């Protein structure tokens, strides 16, 4: 019997010594260190590549995300506001409704976004449109200072899915773990600048809102991260005010930046996914030490497209192209090369005379073979909120002027023209600010046309965007005003019939 027991012990020893090392590595010990990644986008208005396919494109971003997640499962895709509006396709109609960001939700659902916050342009949408986009989304939203203003109360915005209603939270906590069992709790808050007031939106001061939500995050999470849509100065103030914040992934500026403020890194990628930020964070729980490595990654025509997302983008592009072809034959034909960036940002278009605004206004005059004294267009009609660089296509002009409309030739009294110009100047910061051709001011602030002071006793012929004659931006500028003497509306076959066609033809001749 003893011989059998001895033999069994020897066999067992040999068996154990021959086991693969893999069995030993399965019982890793918690080293207290965990690494994770964020893939950050912000201010993405277009789902397809821009500038003739040179940069951007959500299908390309999806490919990058997939590649990162293969290497690091703890990778999270976030967007720091401004994605539902403005966009060219968003202004169009499909199945009887305005698209208004539906295409972006469709794409973002397929990309499996993890977390977003609202930007000021989300509230370009009507209340019911914004609610529809919320309901269609399959990802997490946070909004710490932007709430739903009802008649009797202010409440969080809500998402209605599958018969259930869930409120958008002010904060979001995410528990992550790695292979050896190290865990960390990430805490997020999201604040938005109040630059787009709407009756259905109530904004709390972003500093006050952050001060209110941070104590709970500080108590229950390891790392605090801001997903913000603020101006850079506001992001800096946020970081300098609250030392608990480690990283601010922001938006709004449209150009990339990475800087330190307070104890935080502030990062913003380029608009329209020209670039994305990849943040690699390594946290030592024992030392309470966080290291952040941020890399700006270009999204250009060297990056492959992810097949599923690309199919969705192409489906929406068919809808877009069919609409554009009603005005121009080849939407993607190069019409101009912008050696100097053309400024179509909201802040500039509504506050100063821009080079893009000057081109649009001169195009209006050119559509009437310059048989006008000047041209005026409201800055609010420029909706791209971006700059045009390098190759410019017809699609880009549609992005700039998505609402189209005709160019009217209007004869009016000089006194009224003076009042219109003064009103536009006083409306700086709003859509009623005027972009001009052949107008200037002297040192006394008097308006000049063609270098000569406007004579209030004289009549002038001006090319106006048709929107301006509706009295919506400038209340007294309507055909019913007795000082509006004649209004000519172009025939459909004329260049002036569509302001976008007028600009495309004008730029084509400048090449």
From TrEMBL:
GO terms for biological process: nucleotide catabolic process. PANTHER family: 5'-NUCLEOTIDASE, 5'-NUCLEOTIDASE-RELATED. GO terms for molecular function: 5'-nucleotidase activity; metal ion binding; nucleotide binding; UDP-sugar diphosphatase activity. The lineage of its organism: Bacteria, Pseudomonadati, Bacteroidota, Flavobacteriia, Flavobacteriales. Residues 337-473 form the 5'-Nucleotidase C-terminal domain. The keyword Hydrolase applies. Keywords: Hydrolase, Nucleotide-binding, Signal. Belongs to the 5'-nucleotidase family. InterPro entries: 5'-Nucleotdase_C, 5'-Nucleotdase_C_sf, 5'-Nucleotdase_CS, 5_nucleotidase/apyrase, Calcineurin-like_PHP, Metallo-depent_PP-like. This is Multifunctional 2',3'-cyclic-nucleotide 2'-phosphodiesterase/5'-nucleotidase/3'-nucleotidase. One of its GO terms (cellular component) is outer membrane-bounded periplasmic space. It comes from the Bacteria. It holds the Pfam family Metallophos. Residues 37-255 form the Calcineurin-like phosphoesterase domain.
């Amino acid at each position: 019997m003893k011989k059998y027991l001895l033999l069994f012990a020897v066999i067992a020893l040999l068996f154990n010594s021959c086991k693969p090392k893999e069995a030993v590595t399965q019982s890793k010990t918690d080293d207290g260190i965990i690494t994770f990644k964020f893939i950050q986008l912000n201010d993405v208005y277009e789902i397809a590549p821009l500038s003739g396919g040179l940069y951007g494109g959500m299908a390309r971003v999806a490919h990058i995300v997939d590649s990162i997640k293969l290497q690091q499962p703890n990778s999270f895709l976030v967007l720091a506001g401004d994605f539902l509006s403005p966009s060219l396709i968003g202004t169009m109609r499909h199945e009887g409704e305005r698209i208004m960001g539906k295409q972006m939700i469709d794409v973002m659902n397929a990309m499996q976004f993890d977390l977003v916050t609202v930007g000021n342009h989300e509230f370009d949408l009507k209340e019911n449109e914004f609610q529809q986009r919320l309901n269609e989304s399959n990802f997490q939203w946070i909004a710490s200072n932007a709430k739903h203003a009802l008649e009797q109360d202010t409440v969080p915005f809500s998402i209605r899915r599958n018969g259930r209603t869930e409120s958008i939270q002010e904060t979001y906590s995410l528990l992550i773990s790695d292979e050896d069992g190290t865990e960390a709790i990430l805490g997020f808050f999201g604040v938005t600048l109040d630059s787009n007031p709407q009756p259905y939106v109530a904004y709390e001061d972003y500093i006050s809102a952050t001060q209110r939500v941070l104590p709970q995050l500080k108590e229950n999470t390891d790392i605090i991260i801001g997903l913000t849509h603020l101006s850079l100065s506001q992001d800096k103030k946020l970081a300098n005010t609250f030392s608990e914040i480690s990283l601010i992934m922001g938006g709004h500026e449209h150009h990339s930046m990475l800087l330190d403020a307070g104890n935080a890194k502030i990062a913003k990628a380029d608009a329209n996914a020209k670039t994305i930020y990849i943040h690699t964070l390594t946290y030592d729980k024992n030392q309470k030490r966080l290291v952040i490595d941020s890399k700006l990654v270009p999204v250009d025509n060297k990056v492959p497209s992810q097949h599923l997302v690309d199919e969705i983008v192409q489906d929406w592009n068919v809808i877009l192209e069919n609409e554009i072809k009603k005005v121009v034959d080849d939407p993607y034909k190069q019409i101009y090369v912008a050696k100097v960036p053309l400024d179509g940002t909201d802040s500039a278009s509504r506050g100063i005379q821009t080079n893009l605004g000057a081109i649009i206004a001169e195009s209006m005059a050119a559509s009437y073979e310059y048989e006008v004294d000047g041209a005026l267009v409201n800055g609010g009609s420029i909706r791209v909120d971006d700059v045009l660089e390098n190759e410019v296509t017809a699609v880009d002009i549609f992005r700039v002027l998505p609402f189209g409309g005709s160019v009217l030739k209007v004869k009016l009294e000089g006194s009224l023209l003076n009042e219109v110009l003064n009103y536009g100047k006083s409306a700086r910061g709003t859509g009623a600010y005027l972009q001009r051709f052949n107008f200037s001011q002297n040192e006394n602030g008097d308006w000049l046309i063609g270098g000569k002071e406007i004579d209030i006793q004289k009549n002038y012929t001006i090319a106006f965007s048709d929107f301006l004659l509706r009295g919506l931006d400038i209340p007294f500028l309507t055909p019913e005003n007795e000082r509006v003497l004649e209004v000519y509306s172009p025939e459909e076959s004329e260049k002036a019939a569509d302001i976008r066609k007028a600009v495309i033809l004008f730029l084509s001749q400048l090449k």
